[in-house]
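ok so i was messing around last nite and threw this chain in just to see what happens. nothing serious, just curious
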Amino acid sequence: MTDLTQASSANILIQQMQEQDFALLQPHLERVSIGFRECLFEANKPIEFVHFLEDGVASVTDPQRDGDEIEIGLFGREGFSGTAILLAVERTPHRSFLQVGDGVPALRIASDRLKDACEQSTTLRTLLLRYVQTFTVQAAQGSAANAHYEVPQRLARWLLMCHDRVGGDVLDLTHEFMSMMLGVRRAGVTIALHTLEGTGAIRATRGRVLVVDRDRLGELAGDCYGRPEDEYSRLIAPFGKSQRLS
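result:
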């Protein structure tokens, strides 16, 4: 896609690449549209393509033997799918699909092409590995949150994370998705939503959450939210709290 420029992409990593590094990827990038629930990579199958999302939110999940899935992380315009490729691994036990949004724009590149470019450029590989670090911190904080925080606080964290990745204050989030995010039954999600609504931080309707007071939502989440976002801001570019203060 020779007419694609860094300035025309909403993906933060694409924007932050050095000019010569972007030039390595540019001939191999394809602009695509990702549908709701469309799979980006399957568990235990070769990751053929890497996607740099420009909007929406994608989940990375751990499929269970009983057919359920547990979310271990999410990403949007700050990252890319298939981080295992940067670690010289062609497949992973996890899967990823678009969870928020429909017809979301993304830049797609064949995994082999991305690996070739990273072999040619240390700075490109370093930038993308820095994102892998932030995703690792996110997954670790998710585990800590599950162990030490109650459901309303964990829900506040996930709503803030989704809010960081979409353009407005309306989040299209089903109870099913929030149940998977939090690892609780839907009844627990309903109770947690009512708790957050009672503080004035959000308003919830069927399949939709409106962030009314982000600062209040941040207070409710406490230390449950912020460490991965701070790490991203330190290593790559302002994101999360810092992007909204800049």
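not much to say yet. The two ends are 32 Å apart (CA to CA).
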